[in-house]
């Protein structure tokens, strides 16, 4: 049974690696769109400027940490925190918390509606939590 759990954790880590690689490179390969999108967020301008490079940098660091078993625990927790932040942000947009609807994400994800984006984020948040739980169970045995 623990082999199956490990396989599930590996698959989830691979999915997260693909997600974060795609997300970070989509941002970095089009810096003008990234800057425009980040500066259009409903945050103070100084904070939005920090996000321009911080978000893709964190995504790349998470990819590197997810690759190695020795750093996978911290990577999964970091991914969970980042995905929770994205999910809360998306939920706030849907609840009309902000005075305007900011532009969405880049790449293929840009084509999702905000409700679809929330489901997408919830899916990845959920599987990340599953990976954390399964990994812990395997290590306890």
Automatic annotation (TrEMBL):
Topology relative to the membrane: Multi-pass membrane protein
Localisation per UniProt entry: Membrane
Transmembrane segments: 7-26, 46-68, 75-98, 118-134
Domain of life: Bacteria
Keyword set, alphabetical order: Membrane, Transmembrane, Transmembrane helix
Gene Ontology annotations for the cellular component aspect, listed alphabetically: membrane
Keyword presence, Membrane: yes
Pfam families: MauE
Statement: the UniProt record of this protein carries the keyword Transmembrane helix: yes
InterPro entries in alphabetical order: Methylamine_util_MauE
Any single GO BP term: methylamine metabolic process
Descriptive protein name: Methylamine utilisation protein MauE domain-containing protein
